[in-house]
Amino acid sequence: MSDLEVLLSDPAALMDRDAAALLPAAATAGAQVRSSPLSAASALAAFVGLRPRALVVIAQGRAAADAAIGLALIGSRSPVPTLVSAVLPSWIGALDAVVVFASDGDSGGLGVASAVEIARRRGAAVLVRAAADGEMAYAAGPSLSVPAMGIPEALAGPSRLTTLLMVAGACGLLGEMGGAPTSAEIGLLADLLDAQSLMCAPSSEMFMNPAKALALHLVSGMGVLIGSEPVGDALTAHGAGVLAEIAGYPAAVYTQEQLSQAPALVERLTRRPDIFADPFDELLDGDDAPIQLPLRPVVLKARPAQFPPVTGFAPLLAWYSTITRALPNAIALDGPELVMAHSQGWRSGSFPTPTGAESDGPFRPLIADWAAAAVMMLRLDFAAVYIGVGAGQAAPLDSPAGLGGQLSGRGALRPDTVMHIARDQEDVDRWN
Q1: Domain residue ranges of the chain, discontinuous segments joined by +
Q2: Residue among 93, 86, 35, 33 at smallest CA distance from 58
Q3: Distance between CA 343 and CA 154 in Å, rounded?
Q4: pTM for the full model?
Q5: What sequence ranges are listed for the domain SIS (predicted)?
Q6: CB 327 within 8 A of CB 269
Q7: What is residue 102's three-state secondary structure?
Q8: Which CATH superfamily is domain 29-184 in?
Q9: CATH of region 3-27+189-400
């Protein structure tokens, strides 16, 4: 049994090691989804009824990776071009919609603040997700949206994703997909993420905790994150980023197209181990050869097989089925399957059907895709935190509050989301 496995089996020791409170911060995914529409309400007013020439997201690093997930969810069905850029395009004008994601505690720096001023001066509709103070806040003015959750930005992906989809909905870019997310849909998605947080919590037993299983899978070798369709491809970048920043763990990232063009890597990934082999032999290739870590693939899929026809999409789904069968030691994160398991509660009447929901689940296709991506994002985040806590990694540079407002990761959780440990016959709240 590895040191990490021993630690993950002891919830009390886990919480004691988590000095930066990253575990409760990771569990705020549902709260981030709930609070983001309220935080952005004032800035969103400028987008209502707008039919922009283009939707441009100004973001860098982890924020750009999360913005790419949102634009992949919208996909080619958007009636206008959408793009992520590190700088403000020179052609931005009054006909465009601009979303700016500050990337860290300094609110993105003077260069991005200048871009915000230029976009507003040219008459573009602008929303700026940033801290309440600093150059970015001053430049944003009424376009500022301050995150309600005070958590490190590496774990704030659900907030960024929600904000971007709310802007797209307000602009009418989701018309062919059922329109903007409703408050009922957002509430159901947040409840789903709360349930997933409980499943991934430190108190959850090893054999029932998917995040702990994912963490142990990754640390036993070198992680290879593989996307199987556009949203899954974008999620691999998020996963690699959070693993590096929170856990100090390097992971390789491959899209379906990239992996298909690397037959040598595919051959190694699909190599089936000898059941009689010494597990330590996998680390060495000859007496004088350098250490070679075993590969630990993780395959991500965010869209279901019954997804409406999109050019070239059916082959990707067939490829996902093939690659998951071919990889003997892969973990497959099938987002639609995870959401469908939660849908059993909808069928049994455990929660109400939102307006416009499909007859076979609680979410219409766009929101179901969003839910699938959010669940996989949450599991990757929790796995990164578990690896980081086990390795004793330093806290993120923007810990503990990131860009957030008054609510911290410890204080913003619902009572039923925290973990209780019986100690000396008394329930002790280990999250607060």
Answers
A1: 3-27+189-400, 29-184
A2: 86
A3: 29
A4: 0.86
A5: 40-184
A6: yes
A7: coil
A8: Glucose-6-phosphate isomerase like protein; domain 1 (3.40.50.10490)
A9: 3.40.50.10490
Instruction: Return d(Cα 97, Cα 20) in angstroms, integer.
Output: 37
- First-to-last alpha carbon distance for the chain, in angstroms, is 30
Residue from 313, 294, 287 nearest 302 by CA:
313
Q: Quote the Cα angle for 130-62-193, to 5°.
A: 85
Are 298 and 333 a contacting pair, CB within 8 Å?
yes
Q: How far is CA 106 from the centre of its chain?
A: 22
Strand (E) or helix (H) holding 4: helix 3-8
Query: What single string gives the DSSP state of each residue in 155-221?
Result: G-HHHHHHHHHHHHHHTTTTGGGTSSPPHHHHHHHHHHHHHHHHHTSTTS-GGG-HHHHHHHHHHTS
What's the pLDDT tens digit per position in 75-122? 877 899 999 999 999 999 999 999 999 976 444 456 788 999 999 999
For residue 21, the 8-state DSSP code is: -
> Do 3-27+189-400 and 29-184 fold alike per CATH?
yes
Residues in the chain: 432
Nearest to 247 by CA among 113, 374, 364, 387: 387
pLDDT in tens, 235-272: 999 999 999 999 999 999 999 889 888 889 988 888 87
What is the side-by-side order of every strand in the sheet holding 295-301? 251-254, 222-227, 295-301, 331-334
- Determine which helix (DSSP H) or strand (DSSP E) holds 84, and give its type and residue range: strand 82-85
Asked whether 63 and 159 are in contact (CB, 8 A), the reply is: no
As beta bridge partners, residue 252 has 224
Mean pLDDT of the chain: 83
**CA–CA gap between residue 131 and residue 109 (Å, rounded):** 12
